[in-house]
């Protein structure tokens, strides 16, 4: 994402396979690997799991690029030899080149004791704001930062039989939209341009659609636009100025 003249690479998977160490259960490979740009101002990592702190990609990126990460993800890049790593606990913030403020908030629970990061980014010159949470777990703390211009989060559920939704989108996206009244919402957790293998793929089911979310937003008198960019597309958002009440 490009904000305040800064290029921020978020949870990148650009090359190589995605594996959690149990390939019989789940493995994925890109149909087309992406070019790794040298023009990156910051790497932003929300979680330490391989689908967010992707080792093959991080190994190829320039280790001199500054990194902002959750404590769990910070350990991954530190072990790889990255030189400048800022670890953000919930509630802490980091300012990138005096242009963009990045605030860490509670995000996805990983097991019973660990909660990873979501991020609220603000362009300091214009107050443009963007919220990112990749699994659909939104902290009520967000309400104090409303309104937010853009949300990047799941817009459909990904569910397993008996377990239920492991990625929360359908109701979660509507709830956070009510809190933040964004102008745009973009999906995470949609299938990438990849080949998926393993036992889990046979049972993983998408529940809901972008059209369902659009209908729910309209029913709740929200004008939020639901966008569905294709992998690799460059998307420029035309934002409306909001009225300010003093």
Automatic annotation (TrEMBL):
Q: Which InterPro entries is this protein grouped with?
A: RibonucZ/Hydroxyglut_hydro
Signal peptide bounds:
none
Which Pfam families does this entry report, sorted A to Z?
Lactamase_B_3
Would you tell me the protein name for this molecule? Beta-lactamase
């Amino acid at each position: 994402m490009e904000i305040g003249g800064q290029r921020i690479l978020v949870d990148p998977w650009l090359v190589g396979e995605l594996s959690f160490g149990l390939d019989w259960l789940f493995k994925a490979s890109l149909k087309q690997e992406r070019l790794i740009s040298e023009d990156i101002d910051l790497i932003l990592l929300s979680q330490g799991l391989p689908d967010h702190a992707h080792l093959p990609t991080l190994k190829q990126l320039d280790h001199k690029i500054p990194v902002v990460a959750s404590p769990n993800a910070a350990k991954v890049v530190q072990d790889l030899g990255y030189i400048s790593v800022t670890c953000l606990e919930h509630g802490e913030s980091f300012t990138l080149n005096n242009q963009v403020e990045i605030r860490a908030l509670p995000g996805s629970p990983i097991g019973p004791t660990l909660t990873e990061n979501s991020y609220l980014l603000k362009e300091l010159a214009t107050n443009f704001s963007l919220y990112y949470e990749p699994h659909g777990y939104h902290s009520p703390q967000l309400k104090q930062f409303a309104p937010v211009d853009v949300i990047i989060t799941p817009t459909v559920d990904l569910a397993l039989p008996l377990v239920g939704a492991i990625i929360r989108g359908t109701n979660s996206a509507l709830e956070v939209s009510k809190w933040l009244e964004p102008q745009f919402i973009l999906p995470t957790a949609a299938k990438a341009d990849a080949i998926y293998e393993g036992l889990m793929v046979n049972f993983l089911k998408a529940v809901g659609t972008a059209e369902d979310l659009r209908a729910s937003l309209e029913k709740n008198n929200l004008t939020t636009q639901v966008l569905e960019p294709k992998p690799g597309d460059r998307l420029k958002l035309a934002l409306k100025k909001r009225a300010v009440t003093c």
